[in-house]
């Protein structure tokens, strides 16, 4: 798709900028905040056999409004488009998880609405996809998402700043960057890292009530670490997956790291692996906590793994609550983050600087 050159600077009112393509016209709405927008003329050529760049519908409706049919990860847009990734942090306390739902507030719907206000692309056009579909109450420090636009931006800092000004304060974009057309937030992920926090204090910390599982028990660290080591490596994790509605295609997963550390009154579990089933991390933590407080032995890990049945795990431990879980990092092949030189640099946001006269200015942080 070829986009005609257009420059808009120092915009302080809501406007729309039209971009004339080879077969159709796209409209981009600039958020009603003062910002500089730069769009450059360029032609993008899709690589042969590329699945993820094939287009965007022409109609721009409110993201998600009136259409809650599930969009599968990897659904293909319908004309050439540019692909971008974002690293997103959010407090999951008030959200019904990541995935869009008809009557509940979700992180996906919140992000789509903010992107719509700036790009005027519908949710089908954006094809917003996350690396992990976090459950209700689960938090994220390093959730990775990708989305598409029918135009290329010369700079990402204005988009970054505008999104964070629109989003509620419990959701923040930490980074925006251009990615190769082959990039897919979920299917390109090599590993994911989660943390789980449990509060072992005798009295619940009111400031941690939504961010750590209150577990006022004396625990045996050695037993928990031994149990964690038994879960490390490649195993059939059927017994740790809540999959009552479907059959697992491949029950084998590789846990590359499982550590247990005590930091003050908190117990920190860190789990890294090539992939995780629904509630797998919380189920593993739940079993380790029961082993730690002595209600069951380390041998329970081997028994549960060997059973390959979720019902066996339920005999030993409940699922740990959602609010102690954090998606920390998603790891990718770095080659997916090196597009052509003409692509804008990664935006890491703005930092405010106060000069000697006490006046504020802004410095851009870019990679």
Q: What does the model show?
A:
- The radius of gyration is 23 Å and the shape is globular.
- 18% of the residues lie in helices and 31% in strands.
- It has 367 residues and is of the alpha+beta class.
- The strands form five sheets. Strands 7, 8, 9, 10, 11, 12, 13, 14, 15 and 16 form a ten-stranded mixed beta sheet that branches. Strands 1-6 form a two-stranded antiparallel ribbon. The chain has a two-stranded antiparallel ribbon with strand order 2-5.
- It has helices at residues 107-119, 123-126, 157-166, 221-231, 280-292, 299-307, 310-314; strands spanning 2-3, 6-11, 15-20, 25-30, 35-39, 42-43, 82-90, 129-130, 139-149, 171-178, 191-199, 213-214, 233-236, 252-263, 266-273, 325-331, 347-354, 360-366.
- 40% of the residues are buried.
- The protein has seven helices and 18 strands.
- The two termini are 28 Å apart.
- The model is unreliable at 1-79 and 361-367 (pLDDT under 50).
- It folds into two domains: 2-187, Alpha-Beta Plaits, CATH 3.30.70.580; 191-328, Alpha-Beta Plaits, CATH 3.30.70.660.
- One of its GO terms (biological process) is tRNA pseudouridine synthesis.
- InterPro entries: PsdUridine_synth_cat_dom_sf (IPR020103), PsdUridine_synth_TruA (IPR001406), PsdUridine_synth_TruA_a/b_dom (IPR020097), PsdUridine_synth_TruA_C (IPR020095), TruA/RsuA/RluB/E/F_N (IPR020094).
- Its EC number is 5.4.99.12.
């Amino acid at each position: 798709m070829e986009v005609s050159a257009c420059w808009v600077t120092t915009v302080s009112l809501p406007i729309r900028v039209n971009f004339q393509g080879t077969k159709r016209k796209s409209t981009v709405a600039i958020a009603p905040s003062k910002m500089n927008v730069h769009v450059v003329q360029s032609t993008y050529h899709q690589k042969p056999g590329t699945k993820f760049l094939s287009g965007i519908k022409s109609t721009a409706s409110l993201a998600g409004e009136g259409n809650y049919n599930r969009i599968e990860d990897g659904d293909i847009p319908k004309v050439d488009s540019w692909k971008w990734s974002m690293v997103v942090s959010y407090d999951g306390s008030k959200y019904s998880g990541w995935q869009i739902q008809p009557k509940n507030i979700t992180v996906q719907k919140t992000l789509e609405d903010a992107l719509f206000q700036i790009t005027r692309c519908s949710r089908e056009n954006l094809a917003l996809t996350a690396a992990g579909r976090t459950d209700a109450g689960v938090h994220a420090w390093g959730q990775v998402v990708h989305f598409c636009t029918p135009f290329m931006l010369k700079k990402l800092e204005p988009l970054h700043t505008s999104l964070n000004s629109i989003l509620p304060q419990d959701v923040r974009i930490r980074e925006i960057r251009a990615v190769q057309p082959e990039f897919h937030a979920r299917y390109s992920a090599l590993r994911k890292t989660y943390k789980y926090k449990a509060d072992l204090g005798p009295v619940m910390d009111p400031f941690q009530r939504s961010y750590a599982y209150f577990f006022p028990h004396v625990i045996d660290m050695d037993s928990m670490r031994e149990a964690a080591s038994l879960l490390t490596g490649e195993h059939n994790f059927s017994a740790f997956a809540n999959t009552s509605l479907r059959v697992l295609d491949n029950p084998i997963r590789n846990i590359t790291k499982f550590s247990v550390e005590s930091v003050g009154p908190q117990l920190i579990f860190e789990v890294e692996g090539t992939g995780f089933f629904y509630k797998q991390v919380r189920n593993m933590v739940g079993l380790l906590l029961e082993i730690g407080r002595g209600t069951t032995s380390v041998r329970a890990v081997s028994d549960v793994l060997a059973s390959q049945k979720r019902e066996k795990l339920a005999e030993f431990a409940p699922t740990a609550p959602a609010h102690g879980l954090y998606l920390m990092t998603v790891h990718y092949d770095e080659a997916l983050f090196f597009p052509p030189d003409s692509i804008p640099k990664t935006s890491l946001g703005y930092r405010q600087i106060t000069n000697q006269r006490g006046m504020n200015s802004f410095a851009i942080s870019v990679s």
